[in-house]
Specification:
SH3 type barrels, 4-stranded antiparallel sheet, 15 strands, globular, Ribosomal_uL2_bac/org-type, ribonucleoprotein
């Protein structure tokens, strides 16, 4: 049915509680506009109010066991969160891996056990292990593989680097001194969610997406013409007149030298 709500197996494990008071922030909405008042990202704005949860991506409390006291939903990301409590009663949020349950214990240590949620250096992780929340530089916090259901695979070690296969199928080198978490990110069913109606998208801050061909010439390069017409040019363009679809948009970055194998290109239907 159109208005039915199907609860996934992962959601049934979540704790019904309010977010931890000391770990939340109020974020000011921008309406997808930059500091000059112009729209920088189209079709964004509105939506329900959200409280931002402060997440510990670095997990610098080493060799101190922590207990999972709650698994929570986060409206700001696709993955679920785990609320940890350390021996000194300090509480922190981390990205929850698949299989983690309330009452489990995790630890950040070089000689930690290879089990979901534990965090180790790459040099101490055997080949074939799946990991997430990966650092690009030691002690700088996890930057890679943080969305729902994703995981990278350890392929091998060579000259101070670890070869990782990313969710995109890209293979890259990461320093062996970088910290990673064991397991795959929680909520793998997120990709199968059907939002059912436009109202749910509006609640998430997504405004209607209008076709360029339906606009006026002053609003989009594809606009204008009598009736329903094509784009009127050899290749499609963005609203700002730059080539779109099939054009490389990735800028040269200092990390490009660590890419061993590029990701596979998507086949057009």
């Amino acid at each position: 049915m159109r208005n039915s709500k199907v609860q996934s197996k992962s959601q049934k494990l979540l704790s019904k509680k309010n977010p931890e008071k000391g770990l939340i922030l109020r974020l000011k909405k921008t309406g997808s506009r930059g500091n000059n008042g112009k729209i920088t990202s189209g079709h964004r704005g509105g939506g329900s109010r959200k409280i931002y949860r402060i997440i510990d991506f670095t997990q610098e409390k080493k060799d101190i066991p922590a207990k999972v006291i709650a698994l929570e939903y986060d409206p700001n990301r696709t993955a679920f969160l785990a609320l940890l409590e350390y021996r000194d009663k300090e509480r922190r949020y981390i990205l929850a891996p698949q299989g983690l349950k309330t009452g489990d214990a995790i630890i950040v240590a070089q000689n930690a056990e290879i089990s979901p949620g534990n965090r180790l250096k790459l040099k101490n992780i055997p080949e074939g292990t799946i990991v997430y929340n990966i650092e690009m530089e030691p002690e700088k916090g996890g930057k890679l593989v943080r969305s729902a259901g994703t995981a990278a695979t350890v392929l091998g070690h060579e000259k101070g680097f670890c070869h990782l296969k990313m969710p995109s199928s890209e293979i890259r080198k990461i320093s062996d001194e970088c910290w990673v978490s064991i397991g795959a990110v929680s909520n793998p069913e997120y990709r199968f969610i059907d939002w059912q109606k436009a109202g749910k998208s509006r609640n998430k801050g997504r405004r209607p997406h209008v076709r360029g061909t339906a606009m006026n010439p002053c609003d989009h390069p594809h606009g204008g013409g009598e009736g329903r017409t094509g784009i009127g040019m050899k290749y499609p363009k963005t609203p700002w007149g730059k080539p779109a679809l099939g054009v490389k948009t990735r800028k040269k970055k200092w990390t490009d030298k660590f890419i061993i194998k590029r990701r596979k290109k998507k086949k057009r239907k």
